[in-house]
Amino acid sequence: DVVEALSPAERPLVVFVTAFDEHAISAFDVRAVDFLVKPYARSRLLETLERLRERCATIEHGQSTEVPGIVAIARGRRMVVPYDEIRWIEAAGSYARLHTTSGTAVLVRIPLNHLADQLSDRSFIRIHRSSIVSIGCIRSVAPTGSGDGQVVLDDDTVVKASRTYGAALRRALQIAKRR
Asked: What string of DSSP letters covers 50-61?
């Protein structure tokens, strides 16, 4: 709550240390450098200190500290899935599954609604209550008889599109065509 109360420009570098791993997503939402779950190993603490050193060096050299992708925690390890490697995202209960250009799928503990907000200013569009696609990966859109549609991606993946998001999809594709 304290970190969220500060504007992003005022926030110091933060590492969360807690016994409750369910708060990890919230920590990365406020751009925490790391998240340690107690009890942690000395090697894990040293890894966190190295991340802090790297972030401090980045700031000292005037470089951006924004993470260039979605932070995922898979099998106890933190990883970043770059935005440009994500083809589409599907809801998986209260999680989301990121489908990547390499053909792998990464499950992240972030609800699709949170991802939709995070990706709203990037080249992604929500096309269904359970899916978001990268605009650059869309090959075609075909209507179905019910007013819904199908989005075909450049790897031949077919993702269902609902009429609820149809207008936004058409606008996004028109904007992408003009570029």
From this structure: HHHHHHHHHHHT
Q: What is the pTM for the complete model shown?
A: 0.62
| Higher-scoring residue by pLDDT: 47, 121 | 47
Show the tokens assigned to 29: 């939402």
All residues at 6 or more sequence positions from 2 whose CB lies less than 8 Å from its CB, including other chains: none
Report how far residue 161's alpha carbon sits from residue 134's, in angstroms, rounded to the nearest whole number. Answer: 13
Q: How many CB atoms lie within 10 A of CB 144?
A: 11
Query: How far is 179 from 123, CA to CA, in rounded Å?
Result: 12
CA angle centred on 161, ends 147 and 159, rounded to 5°: 135
C-beta atoms surrounding 42 within 10 Å: 7
pLDDT at 89: 96
Residue 161 dihedral angles phi and psi, to the nearest 5°: -120, 140
CA–CA dist 45, 116 (Å, integer): 32
First to last CA, the chain: 41
pLDDT at 62: 56
* Among 54-58, 104-108, 148-152, 166-170, the range of highest mean pLDDT: 148-152
Rounded CA gap, 97 and 132, in Å?
10
